[in-house]
Amino acid sequence: xxxxxxxxxxxxxxxxxxxxxxxxxxxxxxxxxxxxxxxxxxxxxxxxxxxxxxxxxxxxxxxxxxxxxxxxxxxxxxxxxxxxxxxxxxxxxxxxxxxxxxxxxxxxxxxxxxxxxxxxxxxxxxxxxxxxxxxxxxxxxxxxxxxxxxxxxxxxxxxxxxxxxxxxxxxxxxxxxxxxxxxxxxxxxxxxxxxxxxxxxxxxxxxxxxxxxxxxxxxxxxxxxxxxxxxxxxxxxxxxxxxxxxxxxxxxxxxxxxxxxxxxxxxxxxxxxxxxxxxxxxxxxxxxxxxxxxxxxxxxxxxxxxxxxxxxxxxxxxxxxxxxxxxxxxxxxxxxxxxxxxxxxxxxxxxxxxxxxxxxxxxxxxxxxxxxxxxxxxxxxxxxxxxxxxxxxxxxxxxxxxxxx
Length: 405
Hints:
Layout: H1 9-35, H2 37-44, H3 52-76, H4 78-96, H5 101-126, H6 135-143, H7 145-164, H8 166-169, H9 171-184, H10 188-191, H11 206-214, H12 216-247, H13 251-279, H14 282-300, H15 309-323, H16 327-337, H17 343-372, H18 375-378, H19 380-404
Helix pairs in contact: 1-4, 1-5, 1-6, 1-7, 1-9, 3-4, 3-5, 3-17, 4-5, 4-9, 5-17, 6-13, 6-16, 7-13, 11-17, 12-13, 12-14, 12-15, 12-16, 12-17, 12-19, 13-14, 13-15, 14-15, 14-16, 14-19
């Protein structure tokens, strides 16, 4: 592997700051609709539980775009690809604010296309600036953009929707996305200097999935990510509606619960990233996180109106600290186990697998909700899936040990 040119602290900080903001904008766009699901459902005469279907559509599109992200990275560079994603985020919310079922479906597709581009682009940029000693922490810092965006959605979206209507509330993301894309432009030449302007945008993306399959430890890390993605998306999609429907919270109070989930994951991501670098074993940290997430799921099934508000918020915080905090260590482990010249390809394929779990989570939750009749009881699903993630992380550890012998 060729020696990498030293990256200054200032350059690292600039790249990391922009990647956090891009990720936060994507999270803001993705979590906005679930955060105001009761208001949208009331306006359209639909059960708010059906918010799972726009989420499903979003992640189907994200799965597909993550597989073709490497073509854009080669042709335009990771920095420009991030800017393209921001413009697509803005376009998606312009479509969503039209307020019809058709516009919500189309807007969700467009939103998913953007969402699938963000992580492969970020991983390619981060691979240029991390060192073995700080890899997990830097990846985890970047992924704090997800809870920061989710925190903003949970705290701001319900209040803005109640004041101006849910449709006009979508303009928040439109303005922020376009402004950030413009602010990023002066740095484009520096960080996209290695792009191949004539690179083809058409190629077979499924070869990347085969590459992941051939790298057995990476495959099991990816499947662990699939399971944890299901846990995370179920938690973020249904926290607000669970608190409103099962615990009689107001929409704004339930939004605070979602914000507790999101803000906890900021601390969780930093903690788990630091710990993974400290013990030099990201896979063990993924296993630990999965086990604690299973325990939080069991506690969630016991929630009732008898629980004090502080206890409910404490559980939301604890669940967010693990259920939404695995991403940075996951991304770091994928990058570490990937061939140095294929980080973008492997990351895109692994995100395809993660998005499959993101799809599986909310849809399966709706099915279990129909059987149990209560959102709290349906969190049995996340317990089972979190335990599966634990098993996959342990399997990846064993395989890597065998490969290193």
